Amino acid sequence: MSGTAPFTFTMRGIILALVLTLVGSQKFDIDPGFSSRKSYLYSYEGWVLNGLQEKNLAKAGVRLSCKLEISGLSENIYLLKIRSPQLEEYNGIWPRDTFTRSSKITQMVSSCLTRPFRFEYSSGRVGNIYGPENCPDTCINIVRGILNMIQITIKKSQNVYELQEAGIGGVCHTRYVIQEDKKNSRVSVTKTVDQNNCQEKVVKSLGMAYIYPCPVDMMKERIVKGTAAFSYKLKQSDSGTLITEVVSQQVYQISPFSEPTGVAVTEAKQQLTLLEVKSEWGSSPDISMQSYGGLRYQFPAVLPQMSVQLIKTKNPEQRIMETLQHIILNNQQDFHDDLPYRFLELVQLCRTANADTLESIWRQCSDKPRYRRWLLSAVSATGTAEALKFIKSRIRSDDLSYLQALLSVPFALHLTKADEHTVPIAADLVTSSRIQKNPMLQQLASLGYSSVVNRYCSQTSACPKEALQPIHDLADEAISRGREDKMKLALKCIGNMGEPASIKRILKFLPIFSSSASDIPVHIQIDAIMALRKIAWKDCKTVQGYLIQILADESLSPEVRMMACAVIFETRPALPLITTIANVAMKESNLQVASFVYSHMKALSKSRLPYTYNISSACNIALKLLAPKLDRLSYRYSKVIRIGGYFDNYKVGAAGDVLVMNSPGTMFPSAIISKLMAYSAGSVADLVEAGVRVEGLTDVIMKRNIPFAEYSTYKKIKEIGKALLGWKELPTETPLISAYFKLFGQELAYININKEVLQQAVKAVLEPAAGSTVLKRLAGQLRGGVAAQWTQPLGLGELRYIVPTCTGLPLEYSSHSTALARAAVSVDGKIAPPLTGDFTPSQLLESTVQIRADINPSLYLQKFATMGVNTEYFQQAVEIQGKVLTRLPMKFDAKIDMKLKNIKIETNPCREETEIVVGRHKAFAVSRNLGELGVEKRTAILPGDASSNIVEEPFKPSDRASSEDFTKQEADSMSRKHAYSSQEDLRHVTGRKTHKRDICVKLHHLGCQLCFSRRSRDASFLKNTYLHRLIGEHEARIVLIPVETDADMDKIQLEIQAGSRAASKIINEVNAESEEEGESSLYGDIQAKLKKILGIENVFKIANKTRHQKKRPSRKENTVLTELGADPDTKHPSSSSSASSAVSSSSSSAVSPRRKEAGDEDENNQEEQARNKDASSKSSSSSGRSNKSSKSSSSSSDRSSKSSSSSDRSSKSSSSSDRSSKSSSSSSRSSKSSSSSDRSSKSSSSSDRSSKSSSSSSDRSSKRSSSSSSSSSSDRSSKRSSSSSSSSSSDRSSKSSSSDRSSKSSSSSSSRKSSGHHSHGHHSRHVNSSSSSSSESLSHHSHEHHSGHLEGGSSSSSSAHSKIWGAHEIYQYRFKSAHRQEFPERKLPDDQISSSHSSVRSSHASSRASWPRFLGDVKTPVLAVFLHGIRDDKKIGGLQLVVYADIDSIRPRMQVFVSNLTDSSKWKLCADAAVLNDHKAAAYLKWGRNCQDYKVSSELVTGQFADNPAVQVKLEWPKVPSSVRSVAEWFYKFVPGAAFMLGFSEKTDKNPSRQARVIVALTSPRTCDVVIKLPDITLYEKAMRLPLSLPVGPRIPASELQPPIWNVFAEAPSAVLENLKAQCSVSYNKITTFNEVRFNYTMPANCYHILAQDCSSDLKFLVMMKNAEEAVNLKAINIKLGNHEVDMRPANGQVKLLVDGAESPTNVSLTSAGASLWIHSENQGLVLLAPAYGIDKLYFDGYTFRIQVALWMAGKMCGLCGKYDAECEQEYRMPNGYVAKDAVSFGHSWILEEKPCRGACKLRHSFVKLERTVQLAGVASRCYSTEPVLRCTKGCSPTKTAPVTVGFHCLPADSATSLTDKQMKFDQKSEDMQDTVDAHIACSCEDENCST
Question: What secondary structure does DSSP assign to 545-601, as a single string?
């Protein structure tokens, strides 16, 4: 017992504690209520304010204050009287301004508010509300807002609790916190309502039917969010609990761009305070009352007017006519400013009018076309049932033209409000006979009706059958009648409706579910599957079940299955279903389907949009099951491409899908579907979708009038086909092009172009007679003149979202947009000579056409976005308004002379300011009320005195003087900073609130200037969000302004002259020579003369070098046009000083300023020099420095020669002495510098005998030629050079004698500089082969210049480089240009070096001498264009463009010159582009003063990169304008990110500045490596997939090229196209099919095999092959095509040709009706060409057979060569369509049987019985083959067999079936097992049975 006592005591304690707790938690009865014997007087105030949350910005709002009297009538029923209501408006700066009393609103609202209301109230809950009959909805809702304050739910047992509570905004999540003050008998209650979490939310939306909530609601992001908080003060007394005070506060915020801080706020506040309690009964009012329901807000039956304006809606007929009249009268010449408002007013008035009113207005407008057009547009946009009735009556009475009906009916249906009233009217309209008669109208109307049904049924739980019936009837009728056009329409309408009730109808169109649908075309089946897309939103599981069956069924068309796959993925399947899809793809034999599934999964797996998160992760898992080889399939296979992005900061994203579907019969996509989806804050919308499908188009295009069926071989081929078991010709595809367009998931229109239409179109294109009638009609209209004026609303967009506030006033977010177009056209003209009756199009080429035109199109777009209170009485809102007005007036006279190839267009100059584009945007708070219609209060949201950014505020010191100084300084600095601003803007700088910018392009010679001006003033200084940037005022204008000129401008003329007459039109002579600066040439002349007189050479060396180094940056080029095509190794003849100054510096200065422009150095050199300063470059650069730093003329020669030798020594240490000597001999020598030259050459090249010979030759030449200032390194060339006037060290000589980098480093730089600056352009055209040169031109792009980078000759720098890097990454490889390898530096014996160099050089020089720097010297211009003003003073001013082209040359070239014709201006633009040789193309663009200020150049070179064929594109920009640079820098910021997204790797690198290179190396026909080298980074990617295979074939030598063939540049497209063509080959026992499947197969002797055959219905040709009798490996072929049978047989080591059985010569041309074929001999074989039949080339030499067929034969072939359909997995397809188990069975199936005893082939196809008995499922069975096996004919015995695998069908052993049973079609039986049997492949026949 003692053990239980403590336990008992503890239990007692616990029970006592619980009792005390319960007592303590028990509340008094605090349910609020009113006594039925008392009346209570409260004061009430409620207000709503709209605006941004920041202070000192404008807001708009309304406030209601009144007294409330609540008195009891009976138990729980009370009377509410509203005393002296007062409404005040707020429109001003918050909180500075105050509410202002509005007597008009008070008067309108108090008339209904002051009437008595009755309500039920019990335990804090408001029941039904009663009010006077026909009380306006606004008043009832205000009462609801007041009573909502006293709605309170008290739980007696809890202080904190949550529940879903009914209120004015619906049933929403509510949280209570109760605090009691028992001492004072007071209770305070806090209630918070989450407006985003409601079971039944009160909301109204318009225009958002196609925006769906995100299916995977991961984050409850909403653009509009709301919450409300209520504070109650309750007082307890003996009579109950009384509410003494209630304060409610509600906030709705909208974030249009989903920004956390960029929000606009609507704040509603209410206060209810108890004033007094009286002990008196309430008397029941003597007026009749009706129930208005509970607290839940009720929307009026007719929505309030658009929140853009308030208008009177009484007497709508008169108002509509007045508005129409205003629109028509005020928009005759141009858009009136208020047109958008007036059009919206017209739509609003039409909404209030009934059908009779509209009929009456129509009758008044019946004879006024403009009035009718505007009325129809407004009624179509109205969207009411009455408007739809009106449209229906117009259609029935046939009042509308075809075009009017086509526009108004679909628009009315798509914009109509879908409810129980409009759906029957719409159904009646669509089924009317007049709509049904016209196919196009029926299509658009039916699609519109189905959209109405979709919108209606999305609001209801069950869709009424009546709504669906018209479309279901259409589908049933289409199936019963077999009408394809009606089937298509019905399915597309069912797809628009998206109702699960339609699934049964859809299944009737799919063969898998309906036996009667087997004949339905593929395109209809695809439409049926697409019709399931919207249904899946409502019944996902059912749709997925049907679609997975379709996808898994291999008997269906691949296109149908791919579409099923696409739709499944749209239904967002879960992981199990996606795994099932992957499993289907894994076993899939059709590569089109497998590729489509794989690429779709891969595309989805990379998606980052929130709503695809689940499917994305599921696809990632499922991809692991699939073979990655599917990713490597080429463009011939179907793919899905997805591009998308998601911005988490703004919760917005978009994704674009492109579905590319291929069919086996086409080389190119047969269907492309592209769609764009948008995601924003938890909502998804299918924005746009378009699809195109093509079927059988190749047949129409390639169809020639060739009667294939009439040829004699047609029947033979057909008979041969019958001999093959189960063979059928391919069904003919019905030519069809179909396209459709969807907006927001609803199909708006589609088009079907069938065979007849296509044939007519092809006929019109190909036959001139059809085209000439059209031209004749146009010419007739032109002669008669065309004048028209047209103004039309293009569209109206309306989005409205309305929620109630706690005050009972509605808060509306709305967006309204209008698009209005106007065009005034007046055109007339004449043709001389006039067109005759038997007009042909060729007459036009001899005519002159004159046209006078005045065309004035304009477009007016206006957008309104509002947020605020919108009731029938007043509007208090924040409005953002934007408009864009575009005008493009064109008035011109044109004269087109076709014969002289001249076009002249004249127009009037700019006389007055013309606004081309004006965009304005402003935000303001607006207040309107019905009592003061003409008056609306507007306050700009951003006030004029709004505080600007504090950063921009100037500091104002107290000292006045310093203040003045400061202001002055500031003004100076500001004016410098805003140099672009006009003077007018300077005064605004101090304000800093308005950002202004004016940019003008002055065209003085045309008398006008084009100005872009921008004014911007926004609230971004408060918060930098997109919303704050919108708030304020913005304006942008593009204006054409006249400019004062010296003389009046009469006309502006544009003249275009093509052809031979272009030269005669040139105003300003185009000259390729520069205008040399006198000072420069003078300096050179003086220097040269001094040196001649004094016999010295080094006096001016230092000065000369310094001078040119200083000049280089400012003048890189001294010619107007660089010699892009001229000899790259020659220099302009220069004065002696330039040559002499180069003696030592040329061989020693390795690192020179010229280095970056040096053409003969590889670009990789520049990188290496930047990366690693190795020994060679250091020594050479030091020698260069020592040369520069030499002070005296006497010592500089010695020093430079020593340094030169040290440079050469360093070069020797890393390369052969042979090369080193070449480098030294490349140094330029002066005729007067024998001693120093001799020293230099000896010291630097004494190691080699060749160098001695070269230096001595140099000496000899200098003695021989007094006029030559420098000699070349070869003896022969030095003899030639004696005739030259003067020559610097020629680049070719230095090139041909330098092969390594070191020698290249030491090629002359100062000689280049000097020759570049002292040359005269005109010499370049007259110099001989050894001295032709160009100064500093793009000659470094030509091929001779790149000699230095052959593999054998790496310098010390390159060897050091390779040691450092070791194993190369892809970006470390070097690009080797191909043309260097074509003209390489060959290693020759020493005695041959000079002669070989000389010959190479002279041949190149002579070939280039004929290729001038300026094409104008040898070619006339092909085009001249002039744009100039014709002035009174006859002065010419304007622009001239001249184009020279030489496109027929082996090196095509084009030059373009643009020059300013004004006398004073030297501005020019020069462009030159050329294909320099078969490996290289280059181009440049220069502009500025004489084309010398700015330059951009590019080159394209083919070559090798990491031993792979490659192409390199290089872009250089030595100097570009700062504006271009700033744009490029802005763009450059995005490069790394974009590269990362595309999968590139990135490496920070020090690449050459002002240069970019892209290297693409082809590593295989389907992959390439890409390296992009930019100044700071290198981007690279390995093995990038190419969409199609590229040919990698042998290169054609330049010598074999014929003009205008330029290898890679001209042949690439044709080579790619040729590579696409399939080729089948048989060589010995190896067969390669069209699909590139290779297999070994030994042909049985004497039997013909069907090798390649056209299996289409045309049966154009057949090729058979058998083993020849002569030898084992020899074959014989038989070709049947046209009316001919061609045999090619080997005989006596040659191939014998037999045509129609008779021997024929090997070169023969045969023609059947309409088609020809050619046969000729080639490479010991014969070639047959028959392009008309589809055979591009057939080659046979007895051993090897090759056939190449045309692209349009894809999918139409059969035989051993395959089907040519890219289906490699199904290549062994037998004649019966089944796929063989192995290559032998496949080959045997295509053997052609011969009749017994007549032919040599003794083999037959027979079904065989398995010799053994098989136990199948425990039953003894006999098995028969399901495919035939080769057997010897009767009477013959096999001498040779081959094992083959075949399938067997098994029957019970006791069945009576035998092989001879004709009833048993074994080939159609199911396959129960596989086994191997022996097939006979050779027979011996002694007793052959000839009877069968």
Answer: HHHHHHHH-TTS-HHHHHHHHHHHHHT---HHHHHHHHHHHHT---HHHHHHHHHHH
The model's pTM is 0.76
Angle at 557 between CA 554 and CA 558, to 5 degrees: 80
What are the helix (H) ranges across 754-820? 755-766, 768-784
What CA–CA distance (Å, rounded) separates 1240 from 1224? 9
Instruction: Read off φ and ψ for residue 452, nearest 5 degrees.
Output: -60, -45
- Write down the pLDDT at residue 740: 94
Which residues sit opposite 1679 in a β-bridge? 1663, 1686
Question: What is the CA 1870 to chain-centroid distance, rounded?
Answer: 50
- Would you state the torsion angle of the CA atoms of residues 1831, 1833, 1834, 1835, taken in this order, to the nearest 10 degrees? -110
CA dist 1596 and 1523 (Å) reads 44
Query: H or E stretch including 1335?
Result: none
Torsion angle defined by CA atoms of residues 208, 212, 217 and 221, in that order, rounded to the nearest 10 degrees: -30
Strands 937-940 and 995-1003, how do they pair? unpaired
Q: Give Cβ neighbours of residue 1836 (< 8 Å, ≥ 6 apart).
A: 1802, 1883, 1884, 1885, 1886, 1888
Q: Cα–Cα distance between 490 and 479 in angstroms, integer?
A: 10
The whole-angstrom separation of Cα 341 and Cα 863 is 11
Task: Return the closest-CA partner of residue 314 out of 349, 281, 278, 272.
Answer: 349
**E strands in 605-711:** 639-647, 652-661, 671-680, 683-695
Question: Mean of the pLDDT values across residues 1378-1393?
Answer: 51
- At a CB cut-off of 8 Å and minimum separation 6, what does 1526 contact? none
Do the beta carbons of residue 767 and residue 705 sit within 8 Å? no
- Residue 814 to residue 800: CA distance in whole angstroms: 4
Q: How confident is the model at residue 367 (pLDDT cuts 50, 70, 90)?
A: confident
Q: Is 123 helix (H, G, I), strand (E, B) or coil?
A: coil
The distance from CA 1842 to its chain's CA centroid, rounded to whole angstroms, is 57
Segment (H or E) for 1443? strand 1436-1446
Specify the DSSP class assigned to residue 1034: E
Which residues 6+ apart lie within 8 Å of 160 measured at CB? 175, 176, 177, 178
Reported as a pLDDT band with limits 50, 70 and 90, residue 228 is very high
Confidence class for position 1608, pLDDT limits 50, 70, 90: low
> Tokens standing for 443?
């299509």
A 10 A CB-CB count for 464 gives 15
Report d(CA 153, CA 175) in Å as an integer. 10
Contact 1587, 1566 (CB under 8 A): no
Between CA 285 and CA 81 the distance in angstroms is 10
Matching residue, tokens 């009691």: 180
Residues 6+ apart with CB under 8 A from 1073: 1119, 1120, 1320, 1321, 1322, 1414
Cα–Cα distance for residue pair 1341/1354, rounded to 1 Å = 22
Torsion of CA 278, 283, 287, 290, to 10 degrees: 80
The CA distance from 203 to 191, in Å, is: 22
Question: DSSP states of 898-959 as a string?
Answer: TTTTEEEEEE----S-EEEEEEEEEEEEEEEETTSTT--EEEESS-TT----GGGPPP--SS
Instruction: Mention every residue, 6+ apart, whose C-beta is less than 8 A from residue 1881.
Output: 1642, 1644, 1645, 1803, 1830, 1838, 1840, 1841, 1842
Spatial CB neighbours of 361, under 8 Å, sequence gap ≥ 6: 317, 320, 321, 324, 353, 375
Tokens of 1054: 């544009």
Residue 1481 has pLDDT above 50, yes or no: yes
* Per-residue exposure over 168-204, b if at least 16 CB sit within 10 Å of its own CB, e if not: bbbbbbbebebebeeeeeebebebebebeebeeebbe
The span from the CA of 1778 to the CA of 1399, in Å, is 68
In single-letter form, the type of residue at position 1574 comes to: L
Can you read off the two tokens belonging to residue 1330? 């050894």
